[in-house]
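Final paragraph of the annual report: two paired records, presented back to back.
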Amino acid sequence: MNHPSTTAAGAFGLDEDRREILEQVDRFAHNELHGLQQRMDDEEWWPERTFPLFGEHGYLGVTVPPELGGAGLDFFASGLVVQAVARWNPAIALSIFAHENLCLNNILANGSDELCARYLPGMCEGRLVGALGLTEPGAGSDALGGMRTTARRDGDHYVLDGTKLFITNGPIADIVLLYAKTDPDRGPHGISAFAVETSTPGFQVSQKLVKMGLRGSQTAELVLEDCHVPAENLVGEENRGVAVVMSGLDVERVGLSFLILGMAERALELTVEYARSRQQFGRAIGEFQLVQAMVADMYAQLEALRSFTYHVGAEITALPHGASHRQVAKRAAAVVLQAGRTFTSIADKALQVHGGSGYIWETEINRLYRAGKLWEIGAGTTEIRQLIIARELLG
């Protein structure tokens, strides 16, 4: 398959290896994942074979060294994987993104050698599913300052108590990278990170949450009551959890922009196809100038987003191993800010061109439209992204 979005990516200037990654995953996602969308949305159903299937094809642990079961590729390659998957099944793309960017990569970057050896091979194979446990019922944008979950040391274990909310992959996860206060008196400077196995006594999924969009991607509220986690499952140092969070935030924002880019590509593709085939007044609606104007604007917005995403993605990829992402923090926040707004605009035009058929729940463009609002809320709201950028600019 060589649809317009892969052709555009080639024209943008991806080298042969990266173009092959994008096209290979695109074919896989079209063949294996696209047909699952309807049932996933209708029933909030999760296909259990997804993670093992990705593991079999080598699409998990993209940045993990081969000796730990990964592909040993760079961040940009991982972005291309999620971009291609998002074209054909955004709900699965979000779950893969949470597993890779929010959990696996943070354990790789901050976990001990023993912890990485214990968990990463299974996560690369798709036997173990990862999630991030940060947000709480009373702490969204102020996730660190408002955190109430605690972890107290008890011999060779930590005892965790608290609640986490809006956790992507929560109902299906085996490993949760979970944050808790080990020194509550120190506020954000008393937070630690833990790799928590969901089979641990005291860990429970209290409820699976029903969402407006991306409904197949499983989301939950998690409750920990007297949950004993081995001390060796501490990720990074005690009371240094903020460093673990910050080490992954900029990568998360740019990775999410790749995902949003894939969805925007699909929205344009569906709109072009519909404008060519839909007949009104004896002509294809794509022959009407007002429809042409909307399609042209969508294309211009998409290409600007592609350029920005690839450019910041290349910047992060080029950073030396272990280097701080601080120097690209402003641009990482800016690209995901722009990505969220761009997709909202593209999806709105796409639905307008589709008219009544786009308003019907079961159509693919309707699913994309419903999913799009998350990109102005999740992984930091639009307003938080603006705040980050303004603080960087104004000092």
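The closing record of the year follows.
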Amino acid sequence: MKRPSVLALLLVGALLGSGCSRKPAQTAPPPPEVLVTTVQPRDVPRVLERVATLDGFINANINAQVQGYIVSRDYQEGSVVKKGDLLFQIDPRPFQAALAQAKGTLAKDEANQIKADADKKRAIDLFNKKVISDQERDTAVAAADSTTANVEADKAAVQQADINLGYTKITAPIDGLVGFTNNQVGDLVGPSTGPLTTMSQIDPIKAIVTVGEGPFTDFFSRYPDQVQRQALLKSLDFELILSSGDVYPKKGKFYALDRNLDTKTGSIRYYVTFPNPGAILRPGQFGKVRFVPDEVHNALVVPQEAVNELQGSFQVAVVDQNNQVSIRPVKMGERIGAMWQVTDGLKPGDKVVVQGIQKAREGSTVAVKEWTPPANQVSSDGSPAQKNP
């Protein structure tokens, strides 16, 4: 009776063991999701952005023209002043004395001139009557001419003394914002002691933009006619993008192009001016200027984030009709806002991966969704989506 029981138990154990060793069937993970944009030829406005540094339209160093002691500072540091407003006062007393002395010397020599002119006239009459010699006549004429020269020199000395006295009142040469002072009341200052302060005209304020030789040459090749080029520059409206990302509410205008390229950097500067009535903008601020000079016709553009750059080579991930990925080398042209022109490697209708590139491997299958550009970028149709000021 015991043997059949043992066999039965062995059979049950074998059956149970074989049932536990079976593993559930595994299901394949879903393909990774990527966002794509469809490339189509279109006329794209060239939205260009350039780094800019703000500076005063006019910057002036306020210097002492005469040597003396400062007796007053007559402006509030960091305030806006008008042309002609008093900034500093140098002790005027030594210059008042010098002016009085110069006037006294002039008066004395003018009196001598009256006598010398009378002597000259008398000597000429006597010489004509053959009473005196020609030597005596010449002496009287030379004396009169000498006193005349002395009077002219005295008048110049009076004028210079008056100018020096005027220099004791140091006034603003322009309308603008005055900085902190470098000297205090009681300091001895003069032409060689350096600026007392600086001031800048900031309405309008200028943005200094530096561009490389390539964009500079490209612009002149696009517009070789000087009249057409100047008309375009005058018509352009510039936006100023502050470091915070906000867009300054007032538009700027092209002002001037520098005369030469920097031989060290191969770049050239130009100025754009912006109205600044509330003194919101200050010299030294950084930002970007954005403008649309023209259009690129029938361009193929992709978002810049869709392009992978490696050691000077560029590539994009393209998804075919079967949702399979191929990594394709491309040649890139000009950056246009948040977009980038592709000059070779893509054709109309190609679907390029914009987001999820790290999931898009060569030959892999992906799940595709259409990419929507953010509000603050240039959309896939090339039109700039501006941020509200």
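The longest helix spans residues 93-128. This concludes the annual technical report; the extension proposal builds directly on these records.
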